[in-house]
């Protein structure tokens, strides 16, 4: 039997883990307008970021991308990531082990 959870029921902020064992790591990221996450990396992973609501500016290394609801960004965790909320935003991120 699957476990079914609404995104809104994942309430830890700004990161709510979907799986207790964190393999694969999947989180709900919620940021208020103007808030962001400092630049960092996730070595050894590939990342999928699906913006559910709001408007994010996603900095990857020295490049910036505007994301709107429904858009998906896929990138290497080796890149330096820093999401910033232009308006209140909720995203789902999946961190999958990178393969060689």
Automatic annotation (TrEMBL):
Compositional bias, Basic and acidic residues, is annotated for 12-22
Keywords per UniProt: Dioxygenase, Oxidoreductase
Q: Which organism does this record belong to? A: Halolamina salifodinae
Cross-referenced Pfam families, in alphabetical order? Cupin_2
Q: Show the SUPFAM superfamilies listed in the entry.
A: RmlC-like cupins
Instruction: Using the record's annotation, list all stretches that form the Cupin type-2 domain.
Output: 29-76
Name of protein: Quercetin dioxygenase-like cupin family protein
Q: Where is this region: Disordered?
A: 1-22
Q: Report if keyword Oxidoreductase is assigned.
A: yes
Which is one GO molecular function term here? dioxygenase activity
Task: Show the Gene3D superfamilies listed in the entry.
Answer: Jelly Rolls
Query: What InterPro entries does the entry give?
Result: Cupin_2, RmlC-like_jellyroll, RmlC_Cupin_sf
């Amino acid at each position: 039997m699957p476990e079914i959870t609404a995104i809104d029921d994942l309430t830890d902020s700004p990161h709510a883990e979907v799986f207790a064992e964190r393999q694969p790591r999947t989180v709900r990221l919620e940021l208020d307008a103007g808030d962001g996450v400092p630049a960092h990396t996730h070595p050894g992973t590939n990342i999928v970021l699906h913006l559910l609501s709001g408007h994010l500016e996603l900095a990857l290394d020295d490049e910036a991308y505007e994301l709107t609801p429904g858009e998906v960004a896929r990138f290497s965790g080796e890149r330096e990531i820093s999401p910033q909320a232009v308006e209140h935003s909720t995203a789902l991120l999946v961190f999958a082990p990178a393969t060689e």
